Amino acid sequence: MASRLNPYIQFQNEARAAMEFYQGVFGGEVSSNTFKEFGSGHGPEDDELLMHSQLETPSGFTLMAADTPQGMSYNPGENISISLSGDGDELRDYYAKLSEGGKVTVPLEKQMWGDEFGMVTDKFGINWMVNIAG
User: Fold this and answer.
1) Glyoxalase/fosfomycin resistance/dioxygenase domain spans which residues (predicted)?
2) Rounded to an integer, what is the distance from CA 76 to the centroid of its chain?
């Protein structure tokens, strides 16, 4: 799998509606998983919220989104990240380089869905998510 770079937008209880809207705009297929499906979240009020949603369009666009679970801050204007995903070692290098002078918010390590995942805010304040297929 080639590496890809795409936007990842964080919502507050509106990810499902937003992704349905974007699907109406761009076409394509949406796949989604709730916090409950992954046994995650911060309480029963998060169960039906989207932990991850992905729209793949006929034009080759990829848009990812999620809801913000209870206990995590939601700051409109700061609610977008850039996602890097794939299966190559180059992604580990990107994560390491993006971390230099920045702040690691989630260490790059194996997650409950089987992939390695980490998050970092680079030295310019840009949020990055790195997912390496397991």
Assistant:
1) 5-130
2) 16
